[in-house]
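Below is a filled-in request sheet from our internal design queue. Each sheet records the structural input a requester submitted and the sequence that came back. We keep these sheets so that new team members can see what a complete request looks like end to end.

REQUESTER: design group, bay 2
PRIORITY: normal
MODE: inverse folding
CHAIN LENGTH: 143
BACKBONE (tokenized):
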């Protein structure tokens, strides 16, 4: 059974940037701030509208920025990128995309961190390029 996701969030570890699609912000009502809450089991994260700037929240740029042709909000967050990288033993320098679902009743975006996949290629022996895709089983190694 294939799951459909409403949106995605991307983590660019080489620059410690988080990319949030503007559609995701529209689901939440275009808030001034968004807050991230990480689950205790490290398998999921939610994003919700928030009323102030704190350690767990980010300021949303003004509407002109969020309506750019790139259709995404970019924020620098070393702490969030490093926490999630360490949880999942992600590789420095790679970028990862995480699927999310909008839960209207609670007005939150639920991101399934266990479904994250690398979105940039890895070159192997200068011959092959490997792309990681969701729904494909790969060998798992401890960090």
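RETURNED SEQUENCE:
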């Amino acid at each position: 059974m294939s799951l459909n996701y409403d949106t995605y969030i991307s983590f660019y570890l080489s620059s410690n940037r988080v990319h949030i699609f503007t559609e995701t912000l529209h689901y939440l009502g275009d808030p001034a701030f968004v807050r991230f809450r990480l689950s205790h089991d490290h398998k999921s994260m939610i994003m919700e509208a928030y009323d102030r700037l704190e350690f767990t929240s980010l300021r949303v740029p003004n509407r002109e920025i969020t309506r750019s042709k790139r259709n995404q909000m970019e924020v620098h967050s070393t702490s969030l990128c490093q926490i999630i990288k360490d949880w999942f033993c992600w590789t420095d320098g790679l970028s990862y995309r995480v699927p999310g679902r909008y839960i209207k009743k609670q007005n939150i975006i639920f991101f399934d961190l266990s479904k994250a996949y690398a979105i940039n290629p890895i070159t192997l022996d200068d011959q092959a390029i490997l792309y990681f895709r969701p729904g494909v089983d790969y060998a798992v190694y401890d960090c």
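SHEET NOTES:
- Helices lie at 22-27, 63-66, 78-88.
- The mean pLDDT is 79.
FILED BY: M.R.
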